[in-house]
Amino acid sequence: MSHILLCASASVAIYKACDLASKLTQAGHRVRTILTPNAARLVNPQIFEAVTGETAASSEWESDRRTPMDHIDNAKWAELVVVAPASADLVGRLAHGLAGDLVGTTLLAVPAGVPRLLCPAMNPVMLDHPAVARNLVRLVEDGWQLVEPGAGPHGVRRRRPRAPRGARRDLAAHPGGARAMTTSRAKRPRLHVVVTAGPTREYIDPVRYLSNESSGRMGFELAKAAARAGHRVTLIAGPVNLETPKDVARVDVVSARDMLAALKTAFADADALYMAAAVADFRPARKIAGKWKKKEEAPGTGGVSLELVENPDLLRTVARKKGHRRVIAFALETGDGERRAAAKLVKKNADWIVLNGASALNASESAVTVLDAAGVVWRSESRPKEETAARLVQLLETEPRR
Predict the structure, then answer these.
(1) DSSP code of 168?
(2) Which pLDDT value is given to residue 290?
(3) Domain match, 75 and 216 both
(4) What is the CATH number of the domain that holds 308?
(5) Which run of H or of E encompasses 327?
(6) Among the residues of 232-293, which ranges form H helices?
(7) Residue 212 catalytic?
(8) Taking a C-beta distance cutoff of 8 angstroms, is the pair 378, 352 a contact?
(9) CA-CA distances (angstroms) from residue 222 to 97, 181, 195, 341?
(10) What is the pLDDT of residues 14-54, one digit of tens each?
């Protein structure tokens, strides 16, 4: 059972929203409805309450059972947002971040990573207007999934809206326009997505180990975003103190070799891999049985020194036999990053690579650059990792198989 927030605007197709709310409720979902003021003039919100058994509103002030914080409460409650029907006016307001009513304020408050479906419903001439097409492209770039309109009593939708010339290349719109805009949760396939996350630990003795500052948060946000998008997710996690995301199968590992063993098993029937873990490049040549005393020599070294050997290259090991599976690598660089990341992309046989800096290891935000074989796909300023993760999941859904 999902928590579905249904937002309806003033369109002749609003009668279909009533039917949609009823069918979703009959399917076992909880559906709350918010209407624009003009939509509430066409259909009384109480009709939605009658078919769903949940609250429906068009204003934050219309009933003493609601509070001025309804937009925040509903936004946090939602696990899926559906805007149906979406009028030209609402499409324009959403594209520009306007919050003049309860629908607008609520949708601005929805956390990044929550799937959002937009169902435009208007006269075909209006839908073909350049301004409406630009607004739809902007919404797709912001993470909305569009459900293409079909036939109606006022005309048949013949052409898909296309990106205007000069539209920037982005994850959600790349390589441009119609293909990305018609991807919907209902149409896209359910993928098996494997995500690695966190650091690995290479023990020197029973209490000391080699590791790094990775928090694992990016990998966990990726797993969460993929699960919310309806995919089957296997999360292979190094030692981190993070809660397992909902609907995610988690495998805990410690060392690089542990992670490789788990990765080979999970990747065997996977469709995609996000290699977000910060895997230790080296491990001690031998683990000391007891605690390594400060004044004692390390066994076999002739002094207080530590002999290291190279760990297996996890990404390269699995990606060289990827076949149709898609691989997204991560690169942490401190200088000449794009050139180094591009070289790693080729060397590791990845489809895309996400470049970030060392400051992102243990932070809640990061600035990233995504590259493929042709160059930069997307570049973002520092933003919350959950937003970046949602965009990276869209990469799988808007790009064809390689």
Answers:
(1) P
(2) 81
(3) no
(4) 3.40.50.10300
(5) strand 326-332
(6) 256-267
(7) yes
(8) no
(9) 25, 22, 7, 20
(10) 888 998 999 999 888 999 999 999 999 999 888 999 889 99
Give the residue numbers spanning the domain of 73: 3-181
Domain boundary among 181, 214, 240: 181
> Residues 311-369: pLDDT tens digits?
999 999 999 989 989 999 999 877 778 889 999 999 999 999 999 876 666 677 888 99
Query: Do residues 155 and 126 both lie within one domain?
Result: yes
Q: Is the CB of residue 25 less than 8 Å from the CB of residue 53?
A: yes
- Integer CA distances (angstroms), 188 to 75, 97, 148, 191, in order: 24, 27, 13, 9
249-273 pLDDT, tens digit each: 999 999 999 999 999 999 999 999 9
DSSP state of 167: P
Residue 90 sits in a domain whose CATH number is 3.40.50.1950
Q: Nearest-CA neighbor of 354 among 345, 343, 364, 363?
A: 345
Q: Name the residue type at position 330.
A: F
Tell me which of 212, 241, 311, 349 is the catalytic residue: 212
Q: What's the rounded Cα separation, in Å, for the pair 183 and 189?
A: 10
One domain for residues 332 and 302: yes
Q: How many domains does the chain have?
A: 2
Same domain, 241 and 123: no
Mean pLDDT of the residues in the chain: 82
One-letter identity of residue 346: V
Question: Are residues 222 and 174 located together in one domain of the fold?
Answer: no
Is the pLDDT at 147 greater than 70? The verdict is yes
